[in-house]
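Q: Given only this backbone (150 positions), what sequence would you predict?
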């Protein structure tokens, strides 16, 4: 095999590798976005559950306080367990909200970088692939040209 044949083959392999890379990386970026959506949905479900749980704990605490206000002073009603449960529920909900904020901030950063990367995949790599195809075609045309007889 002559040098020009090896060059053409190498350029063709490079172009094919770029095509495979572009498609694979598009899938990776898509999976990343899907994963972010899944995490956001999960946190949203947890926040909704936490809000419901907090409302329930607050209602139970309020009902206990009402019972305590109407209770016999000699037989007091202890609402500390309900107060603790409401406080813990509020803390859990606040942790979930902090995670949501953190995920939103990180997702925003990812989206910006992913957008630039997808631009590279959708715009720059196809131009490189076209350039390689033109170069390959030029080399193949040069290979077909016969050298003049001396």
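A: Predicted residues:
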């Amino acid at each position: 095999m002559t040098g020009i044949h090896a060059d053409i083959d190498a350029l063709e392999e490079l172009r094919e590798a770029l095509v495979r890379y572009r498609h694979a990386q598009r899938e990776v970026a898509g999976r990343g976005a899907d994963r972010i959506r899944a995490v956001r949905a999960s946190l949203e479900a947890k926040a909704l559950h936490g809000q419901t749980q907090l409302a329930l704990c607050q209602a139970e605490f309020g009902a206990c306080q009402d019972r305590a206000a109407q209770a016999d002073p000699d037989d007091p009603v202890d609402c500390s367990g309900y107060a603790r449960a409401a406080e813990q529920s509020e803390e859990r909900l606040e942790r979930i909200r902090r995670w949501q904020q953190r995920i939103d901030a990180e997702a925003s950063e990812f989206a910006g970088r992913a957008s630039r990367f997808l631009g590279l995949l959708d715009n720059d790599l196809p131009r490189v692939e076209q350039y390689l195809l033109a170069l390959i075609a030029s080399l193949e045309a040069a290979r077909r040209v016969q050298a003049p007889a001396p």
